Amino acid sequence: MDNNNIAVGLDIGTTKIVAMVGRQDAYGKIEVLGTGKAKSLGVHRGVVNNITQTIQSIQQSVDEAESASGEKIGTVAVGIAGQHIRSLHHSDYITRSNSDKVIDENDIDRLINQVYKLVMLPGEEIIHVLPQDFKVDGQAEIKTPIGMYGGRLEANFHVVVGQVSSIRNIGRCIKSAGLQLGNITLEPLASAEAVLSQEEKEAGVALIDIGGGTTDLAIFKDGIIRHTAVISFGGNVITEDIKEGCSIIEKQAELLKTKFGSAWPGENKENEIVSIPGLRGREPKEITLKNLSKIIHARVVEIVEQVFLEIKNYGHEESKKKLIAGIVLTGGGAQLKHIKQLVEYITGMDTRIGYPNEHLASNSDSELSSPLYATVVGLLMKGVRDNEKLNNITPEIEEESYKQTSQEDAVPKKTIFEKWGEKFRDFLDNAE
């Protein structure tokens, strides 16, 4: 891949695997050069359960993206989700040996690394450690303690944990598909990149990404991620219910859901009927749309109530934690008719559908601004940003105020995510 500015996002989902190749244009928007999509066969509820099939699907989507863009794909930015992801809150502190020196990045790193050493359940690995707020010598609610004096540095953390084996399997699939693993990101964080505005993150917002196998939740407040959760069912269970409830095959159930389905049963009249061809030599089936939307409604209510429970667990009802910007729905499930109204009805919160088109260049294919592509657009944005960081490794040091004390200071600081990405790649390499 000769062009250094080209990045690739790879979304390994339960229903589809999408590879998206793109770069940043002159206006800072993402120009999509090519997209490849394959049916995902080896993934169940966000977790790889058939390595061979997943590798084939990844290769298929990557080949398609390569021929569409004319670029050779090497490194990919990947998302991770699945029912094994859980998050917890943790507080930790360090005592500084020299309280006459101001707190710097290294102190924060020391504190974060200490959290990474937490003992988890067997087979679990810490994916992200996200600082929420800091305390210096007992003084609370400090956003960035850098530059302050103090002996004891404390922080509250949001820690995201996942299963080692599941993460390793994704790494394995990518290697076997002949690709290199770039950064790996929690999928709800990637979707948030693509569909949320900075104002929403400040005001407080819950992003609900309804995928095929899982529903992901990410809550932001004051510009910081506060809570994440993965609920282990998504659009596929709705299709399953239709299949069972109407005694039809899966392909027909999926078509019924996307073409005629609605999350609001009051909408359909009793006499609206769809006729479905019977299996070989059998009579066609007649299904009323009212029944169809009753089945969908029941399952969507269940998903939304579970998500709402998580929003309450975060503390949405406390005035300081109120999510003023309400809810943003994205993912394939957000395309279901009347789902916005249903979510507003159940939660009493303002809701909008999140389209990832804000960051895409104006000449992009309109299909790409579907909520279906929120995660992969977010991953592509992260990939582009990583490239930028690599290309800007020699920052201009012109200001007099910047006193360079040693060679190390010239290297730009890595973000928490980059450090984690490196740690994670080492971990994968050692596991081989």
Verbal overview:
- This protein is of the alpha+beta class and 432 residues long.
- Helices cover 35% and strands 27% of the residues.
- The chain has 11 helices and 18 strands.
- It has helices at residues 51-69, 105-116, 164-176, 187-195, 198-203, 235-246, 250-260, 289-314, 339-347, 374-391, 416-431, and strands at 7-12, 16-24, 30-39, 43-44, 47-48, 75-80, 86-95, 124-136, 139-142, 152-163, 180-186, 205-210, 215-221, 224-231, 273-276, 285-288, 327-330, 351-353.
- It has a 5-stranded mixed sheet with strand order 3-2-1-6-11. Strands 14-13-12-17-18 form a 5-stranded mixed sheet, with helices on both faces. A 4-stranded antiparallel sheet has the order 7-10-8-9.
- A hairpin with a 3-residue loop joins strand 1 (7-12) and strand 2 (16-24).
- Helix 1 (51-69) packs across helix 3 and helix 8 (289-314) packs across helix 9 (339-347).
- Residues 394-412 have low confidence and may be disordered.
Provide tags for this entry.
alpha+beta; five-stranded mixed β-sheet; 11 helices; 35% helix; 432 residues; 27% strand; Nucleotidyltransferase, domain 5
The radius of gyration over CA amounts to 23 Å
The CATH class of the domain at 198-354 turns out to be: Alpha Beta
Strand order of the largest sheet: 3-2-1-6-11
Note the main sheet.
Answer: 5 strands, mixed
- The termini sit apart by 26 Å
SS-derived structural category: alpha+beta
Helix content: 25-40%
Shape: globular
Residue stretches low in confidence (pLDDT < 50, at least 5 long) are 394-412
The number of strands is 18
CATH architecture of the domain at 198-354: 2-Layer Sandwich
Q: How is the CATH topology of the domain at 198-354 named? A: Nucleotidyltransferase, domain 5
